[in-house]
Amino acid sequence: MQREKSQTTVYPNPALAFVRIQHNYEGKEPIKLIIYNFLGKKQMEIIRPSNTLQLDLSDFRRGIYIFQFRDLQDRILETGKFQVEK
User: Is 66 exposed, middle or buried (0-12, 13-18, 19+ CB in 10 A)?
Assistant: First the structure.
């Protein structure tokens, strides 16, 4: 299986009130974005995210968060992290 190309940018990082996630996933299959806190608890899941998302961090606590882009069979396509400072 060939991996689809993607390049993800997350800013500002560290973030206070919001974070923007930009990706250019080029695959034909729909994807989802899942965000976990550093303890592994799922914070958010977005199916078929747009190429530029602005996420409100008002429900997020201070800390490091892991994001994953997955296909609909739950295979990880890309992973990264961002920090929330409050």
Answer: middle
Query: What is the token pair recorded at 48?
Result: 């078929």
Buried b (16+ CB within 10 A) or exposed e, 29-52: eebbbbbbeeeeeebeeeeebeee
| Residue 65, domain extent | 9-84
Query: Which DSSP letter does residue 15 get?
Result: B
12-51: pLDDT as tens digits? 999 999 999 999 887 788 999 999 999 999 999 999 999 9
**Structural domain includes residue 79:** yes
Task: Judge whether 80 and 66 are in contact, CB under 8 Å.
Answer: yes
